[in-house]
Amino acid sequence: MKKSTQKKWMMYAVGLTSLSVLAACGSGEENSGAEADSSELEEAKLVTNWFAQPEHGGNYAALVEGMYEEEGLEMEIEPGGPEISATQIVASGDADFGYTSGEDLVIARDEGIPLVAIGAIFQESPYVLISHEGQVDSFEDLEGKTVFTATAVGYWEYIKEEYELEEVEERAYTGSLAEFVDNENAVTQGYMTSEPYSLDEQGVDIDYLKVSDSGFESYGNVIFTTEDMIENNPEKVQAFMNATVAGWEYYRDNPDETNTYLQEQNPDLTEEKMEYSKEAMDEIVYGGDAEENGFGYMEADNWQTLQDNMNQLDLTSSEEDIEEAFNMEFLEEAHNE
């Protein structure tokens, strides 16, 4: 890393320390699966991107089934939430591993923050653009709509440019669906594993467009760590990935016990909601390139396409070798265990 990048990174990390500590304190119950003598285990923390849910099921399965303990880790999983940034918490050193999107990881590296992807839970973007039934059949039909999305998100900037959307009223996505429900002309972002179910439960008839069908390629729920962790404690990274891969393979066919634990951590979950999420996500977790190459697989060409798109949209200006942004060694070794 260049000295200028190092300096920028150090300033960033110092500035984030107090923020990430507050975020960690406010994220809800922290979950530890260690039952053995903690003196024999190495502490490790994963911070996710939302409250406990099936989209994190494999990591929780590894916790519940003692797989992290078997690898010598006293594992803690800290739930994310609307005010919590896993990239900030991991970057500041308050957690070892995190979940983020492919776009956010590319942006972080462009800003000099040395995060590295070590696996991708979703082989394609889980995002969808949800509309009221009969209102939107194609991405071109988004013209003239009120669209609720997160600010400066890569896929939305791409869709606006690719489909020449000029008359869209953009509104900030807050996580609430209330304004969408009340506005027949509205479109909202969501996860294909979550919001469609919630809206159906409310009796709202919807259609949705999969972001992955727009031409924008990005991995979802990317598992990441830091360059420093990889360089100075590769054994910890390997232990984490060994258990993580085992957990996701276990969760595929054995979700019940883990789902019970998820419901204890997040009482808003119902059995029906978890069954829907599990079924909806199986295709993008275990399908695609993962079907042939195993859970978590990442392809250099996909990362390169993402970086090129982000640069073209002026969200980044990175010229670094994309191979620096992800590392497959730990994942491959875990599959060989």
UniProtKB/TrEMBL annotation:
Keyword Phosphoprotein: no
Lineage, opening ranks: Bacteria, Bacillati, Bacillota, Bacilli, Bacillales
Keyword list, A-Z: Signal
Gene3D superfamilies according to UniProt: Periplasmic binding protein-like II
GO terms for biological process, alphabetical: thiamine biosynthetic process
Family matches, as InterPro entries: NMT1/THI5, SsuA/THI5
Signal peptide: 1-23
Domain of life of the source: Bacteria
Organism: Sinobaca qinghaiensis
Protein name per its UniProtKB record: NitT/TauT family transport system substrate-binding protein
Positions of the SsuA/THI5-like domain: 53-257
